[in-house]
Automatic annotation (TrEMBL):
Residues 74-300 form the RAI1-like domain. It comes from Caenorhabditis angaria. Keywords: Hydrolase, Metal-binding, Nuclease, Nucleotide-binding, Nucleus, RNA-binding. This is Decapping nuclease. Its cofactor is a divalent metal cation. It is found in: Nucleus. Its main location: nucleus. InterPro entries: RAI1 (IPR013961), RAI1-like_fam (IPR039039). Belongs to the DXO/Dom3Z family. GO terms for biological process: NAD-cap decapping; nuclear-transcribed mRNA catabolic process. It is an enzyme of class 3 (hydrolase). Decapping enzyme for NAD-capped RNAs: specifically hydrolyzes the nicotinamide adenine dinucleotide (NAD) cap from a subset of RNAs by removing the entire NAD moiety from the 5'-end of an NAD-capped RNA.
Length: 333
């Protein structure tokens, strides 16, 4: 139904291993292409789509972020580092950047869905080699964000066939979030063709992408009204059709477990498809605005979005867009 707004073309997949060095001041990215997301453990998930599985006592998953566990969130606030490495490693002899990627814009999935459904955000965009690069401003994670990320990553590791961890483990001494699997795709809007990357949490037994989420409440009308639009757009922008949800339960004062897991068709979580259409139109319009503002190479803008429809900008020096390194540009004509 939404195909008239966006057409998807799969480009490839990769694994990005991010490590923090020099006392947290520098990150290194190592990208290996053609590595997909881990598979789900079939014994922990519902057998049928759009159903819920109540876990047996011995299978209940302890996702508590214990203090004795070392958690390093290496992958937070990534800019464009990994997708640029992917572009460099594509099987192509084409030296013209735009011809190689067959796209007008390069960005991450998060930027696209936030343009459509979030109010306040800040981003920078720069035109180099006839391609526009767009990147959200980094934000510092709060302690609450870190704890949630810690628990969410433990849950993902426990229910997937990740070689680094065993699903029965309840205590992770070292947990790194820097190892991520992503897909790259072309998204053709009316206004522009975008090359974007999106993290993929897992795959089902047939190899289909699955988005994984944790929730505190049952999947009630209240959850659908308040959370489903953002989650739906996250899935849609990655062309992911299935959503796996773990329900959090508090057992003791500082212990949190998952005792129910739901597997849901993406299209089942959205009730107002017209609102989704409005979001996609909004994304297309904003991409068109950026293209119209950046008509020449080495132009750059800083954008402040205050409210969904406000899109204020100012021109800045292209050198302020450090997320496009010269070492990358030098590889292309």
């Amino acid at each position: 139904m939404l195909d008239k707004f966006v057409a998807f073309e799969y480009v490839g997949c990769y694994q990005s291993d991010v490590r923090t060095q020099c006392f947290g001041k520098r990150k290194t990215f190592n990208v290996e292409i053609n590595i997909g997301a881990p598979f789900l453990h079939t014994d922990l998930i519902p057998e049928k789509l759009n159903s819920v599985k109540k876990l047996e006592e011995e299978d209940i998953l302890d996702i508590t972020a214990y203090r004795n566990e070392k958690y390093v969130d290496d992958g937070s606030n990534e800019k464009l580092e990994s997708i640029l490495q992917f572009i460099e490693k594509m099987e192509s002899d084409e030296k013209n950047l735009k011809m190689r990627i067959k796209s007008d814009i390069i960005c991450n999935r998060g930027l696209l869905y936030k343009l459509g459904c979030m109010g306040n955000l800040k981003l920078r965009a720069v035109r180099r080699k006839n391609v526009i690069f767009m990147c959200l401003e980094s934000k510092k994670d709060t302690a609450r964000d870190t704890i949630h990320s810690h628990s969410a990553l433990k849950f993902e590791k426990m229910i997937t066939d990740d070689e680094t961890f065993m699903k029965t483990s309840r205590n992770f001494k070292n947990l790194r979030s820097g190892l991520r699997r992503k897909i790259v795709q072309r998204m053709s809007f009316d206004s522009a063709t975008v090359l974007s990357s999106a993290e993929i949490d897992a795959r089902d037994k047939d190899g289909n992408s699955v988005e994984i989420k944790l929730v505190w409440k049952d999947l009630t009308e209240d959850w659908y009204e308040k959370k489903s639009l953002k989650v739906y757009l996250q899935c849609y922008m990655a062309n992911t059709k299935q959503l796996l949800i773990g329900k959090i339960k508090q057992r003791e004062k500082f212990q949190f477990v998952v005792d129910e897991i739901a597997l849901i068709d993406r299209d089942e979580i959205i009730h107002d498809i017209n609102f989704v259409e409005e979001c996609l139109k909004r994304v297309s319009e904003k991409l068109e605005t950026v293209r119209n503002l950046l008509t020449k190479n080495d132009q750059a803008i800083y954008v402040r979005q205050i409210g969904i429809n406000d899109f204020d900008h100012e021109y800045i020096d292209a050198d302020d867009c450090e997320f496009v390194p010269q070492s990358f540009l030098d590889k292309f004509d």
